[in-house]
């Protein structure tokens, strides 16, 4: 079976992780002789200090799975590139309006349109899905909640249903200092991982309805 370029890049980054000064990383998150431990979105994660392999688990590492490209690169970004001291602004900004970015900069226009269309007309199920993922209500939005990417880093999810004049809208907001800890491109990895988890919860809520 041919290995995808994303998997090749993930494996290359695992090897590169081993070249970083791990003493510098020890001040950021829990660790032992074999792993760094990093809660990310809705799972526990650990990074093997000897191989660089990133593993996720939902049962305190009784069962584990290897991280995807997005998950692995996001965790490495935080551990190896983020500032050591965590100082949040306490105010939110949309992804393309963050401090330090070029105004209007975006990776892909309409990148969330298909997800917004999927949730349109199902706002109650979407709310239930957000609550099931421990989201805290936020405003404005027909379904708006605050989640945590990492224990210290909030993420705001907002959704508005369509009406006679406008299509459905899905937006994210971040703490204004988020780029001190994650690169701009990495924010899109996080949003993708978040929406994958939300899709699963949304499908489960639709089945229960």
Parts with pLDDT < 50 across at least 5 consecutive residues: none
Helix content: 25-40%
Whole-number radius of gyration? 18 Å
How much strand content do the residues show? 15-25%
Report on the biggest sheet: 5 strands, antiparallel
| Termini Cα gap | 40 Å
Total number of helices: 6
Secondary-structure element order, N to C: HHEEEEHEHHEEEEH
- This entry's quaternary arrangement is single chain
* Coarse structural class: alpha+beta
Q: Could you say which overall geometry the principal axes of the C-alpha atoms support?
A: globular
Mean pLDDT: 90
- The number of strands is 9
Q: In order across it, which strands form the biggest sheet?
A: 5-9-8-7-6
Question: How would you explain this protein's 3D organization?
Answer:
Helix 1 packs parallel to helix 3, helix 3 crosses helix 6 and helix 5 crosses helix 6. This protein has six helices and nine strands. The chain is 34% helix and 20% strand. The strands form two sheets. A five-stranded antiparallel β-sheet has the order 5-9-8-7-6. The termini are far apart. By secondary structure, it is an alpha+beta fold.
Which helices and strands appear, and what pairs or packs with what?
Blueprint: H1 5-17, H2 22-25, E1 35-37, E2 44-48, E3 54-57, E4 65-66, H3 69-81, E5 92-94, H4 113-119, H5 123-132, E6 136-137, E7 143-150, E8 153-160, E9 169-175, H6 184-208
Antiparallel strand pairs: 1-2, 2-3, 3-4, 5-9, 6-7, 7-8, 8-9
Helix pairs in contact: 1-3, 3-6, 5-6
């Amino acid at each position: 079976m041919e290995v995808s370029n994303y998997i090749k890049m993930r494996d290359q980054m695992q090897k590169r992780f081993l070249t970083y000064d791990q003493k510098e990383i020890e001040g950021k998150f829990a660790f032992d002789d074999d792993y760094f431990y990093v809660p990310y979105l809705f799972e526990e994660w650990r990074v093997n200090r000897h191989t660089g392999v990133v593993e996720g688990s939902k049962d305190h590492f009784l069962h584990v799975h290897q991280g995807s490209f997005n998950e692995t690169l996001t965790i490495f970004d935080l551990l190896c590139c983020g500032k050591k001291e965590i100082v949040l602004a306490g105010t939110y900004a949309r992804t393309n309006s963050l401090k330090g970015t070029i105004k209007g900069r975006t990776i892909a226009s309409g990148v969330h349109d298909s997800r917004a269309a999927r949730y349109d007309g199902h706002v109650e199920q979407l709310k239930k899905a957000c609550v099931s993922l421990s989201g805290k209500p936020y405003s404005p939005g027909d379904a708006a909640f605050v989640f945590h990417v990492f224990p210290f880093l909030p993420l705001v999810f907002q959704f508005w249903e369509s009406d006679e004049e406008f299509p459905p809208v899905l937006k994210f907001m971040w703490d204004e200092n988020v780029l001190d800890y994650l690169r701009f491109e990495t924010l899109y990895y996080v949003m993708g991982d978040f929406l994958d988890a939300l899709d699963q919860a949304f499908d489960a809520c639709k089945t229960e309805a």
